[in-house]
């Protein structure tokens, strides 16, 4: 309509391709675009942002004091530590028992081999040991000593006899008189070993004297220990054993553990 009215008006010549026609078309396009955008905004409502409530943070648990008479945390910790220590001790004891059993088995195998090699009759030896255990007379001790010297034919013979004495003396349940009387026999044999230069038998007895002496000493009361200790004084005086062996005998508990 405007173009019809202003067709002959030179001021509106740009409507019909005049000098500013291109500028007019540009401005017209811009205005149309803005109008379209405004209408779209009026029609489409602005989306509402829904606020999602945050979950409530959990409150820390209320510390409830233990009921009266219940153990405290410190008591429970101490009990737990005690339980661990007991378990460790049980494992140590079990390990010690296993080691002891393994050593005993190895010793028995060695002695069995020596019995087969030497053909020594340990029953005959036991028959001579029994009167010593029962009466401990000089004749009984002399008979046992003579049998040992008669059969000390090789280091294997000597080790078998010394090992048999050790087994009899250190056996579980062996009573004090058995141990003491067989130690008296051992003492008499030591004296004659030195006098007769019986080195193999002396060396064999040195290998077993620590368990023989220490086991017997630790198993009895003080008054009985004194009877055994007198023999150690005699052994030191006569120089039957080397210094390392004497030191083990002087500290029976330590010596037995080191042997």
From TrEMBL:
Q: Name one GO cellular component term.
A: perinuclear region of cytoplasm
Entry's Gene Ontology BP terms: intracellular calcium ion homeostasis; RNA processing
Provide the GO MF annotations for this entry.
RNA binding
Q: Name one Pfam family in it.
A: Surp
Which residue spans adopt a coiled-coil conformation according to this UniProt entry? none
Taxonomic superkingdom: Eukaryota
The CID domain sits at: 117-257
InterPro entries, alphabetized: CID_dom (IPR006569), ENTH_VHS (IPR008942), Surp (IPR000061), SWAP/Surp_sf (IPR035967)
Q: What is this protein called?
A: CID domain-containing protein
- Native organism is Aquarana catesbeiana
């Amino acid at each position: 309509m405007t173009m019809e009215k202003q067709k002959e008006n030179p001021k509106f010549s740009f409507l019909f391709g005049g000098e500013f026609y291109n500028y007019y078309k540009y401005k017209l396009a811009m205005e149309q675009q803005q109008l379209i955008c405004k209408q779209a905004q009026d029609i489409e409502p602005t989306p509402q942002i829904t606020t999602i409530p945050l979950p409530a943070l959990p409150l820390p648990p209320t510390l409830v004091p233990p009921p009266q008479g219940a153990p405290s945390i410190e008591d429970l910790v101490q009990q737990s530590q005690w339980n661990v220590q007991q378990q460790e001790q049980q494992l140590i004891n079990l390990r010690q028992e296993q080691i002891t059993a393994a050593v005993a088995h190895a010793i028995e195998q060695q002695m069995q081999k020596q019995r087969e090699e030497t053909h020594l009759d340990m029953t005959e030896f036991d028959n001579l040991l029994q009167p010593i255990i029962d009466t401990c007379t000089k004749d009984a001790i002399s008979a046992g000593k003579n049998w040992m010297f008669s059969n000390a034919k090789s280091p294997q013979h000597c080790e078998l006899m010394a090992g048999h004495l050790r087994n009899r003396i250190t056996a579980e349940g062996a009573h004090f008189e058995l141990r003491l009387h067989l130690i008296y026999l051992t003492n008499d044999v030591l004296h004659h070993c030195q006098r007769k230069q019986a080195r193999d038998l002396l060396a064999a007895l040195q290998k077993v004297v620590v368990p023989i002496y220490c086991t017997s000493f630790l198993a009895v009361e003080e008054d009985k220990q004194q009877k055994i200790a007198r023999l150690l004084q005699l052994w030191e005086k006569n120089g039957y054993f080397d210094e390392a062996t004497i030191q083990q005998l002087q500290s029976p508990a330590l010596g037995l553990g080191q042997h």
